[in-house]
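Protocol step 4 of 6: structure prediction from sequence.
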Amino acid sequence: MSKIHNKTGLVCMICDESSKHPIDNIIFHKTRRQTHSICMDCGVEYLRPILKVKCNNIRKNIKNNDTCLIKCPGSYHSLKRNQCNYIADLKDLNIKECDISLDILRILYTSKSDNLFLCPNEQCGQMIEVDINYIRDDIVCNSCNTSMCKKCFVTPYHNGKSCIEVEMENNDTENGKYILQMKNEGKLKFCPQCRTACLKHNGCNKMICSVCDVKWCWICTKLNIDYSHYNTTDVSLCNGKLWEGVDENGNEI
């Protein structure tokens, strides 16, 4: 290693002070001429807010190729350093045990596994491992008992409602607003048994859910019906209305 690498490897890119213990410095990478490193104190302060954002993104199931990547802070230094655009992998940074170590472990482990989740309770922060054979969507943290949905990550778990139904009720996404509009226009309803969102483009009012196979009425949402539901001498909301709302060709009107 050249003398300039040895020299720059002792100097923190943020506070610009030399360290007598280079082993405590976090080395991001080596350029052709310099070593870009940061002292542990500055490194922890630099990484803490970044790691917090990454953990919160994981709680919301926002995972991408950048989840474990950290930008070299050399680009924030004075003209004494090269302006740096290097992106380091979190697992390659030599960071000794400190108060951000748990966040680093949480990010590294949960970002690489589809069966490992981060507790939605920020005060807890435990990792929740789910068996690959577990078919339910509700999971509970064994540490703080916080429940969540492993599909849409809503907490607490929306028992009795589908993820789409919850998104519609929250009305805080474009998709949720569109679903609500479709429901208000009478074009979308939820299966009364499994709460799957169903669209009715054409055909009669006797529905068969594509998920749970239950037969139900589009008009009154009664379960386990047959054609007799629309053809009975009993007083019924749906009597004689098998084809209500559609033209002679079966298309919606």
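Step 5 (inspection) to follow. The mean pLDDT is 83.
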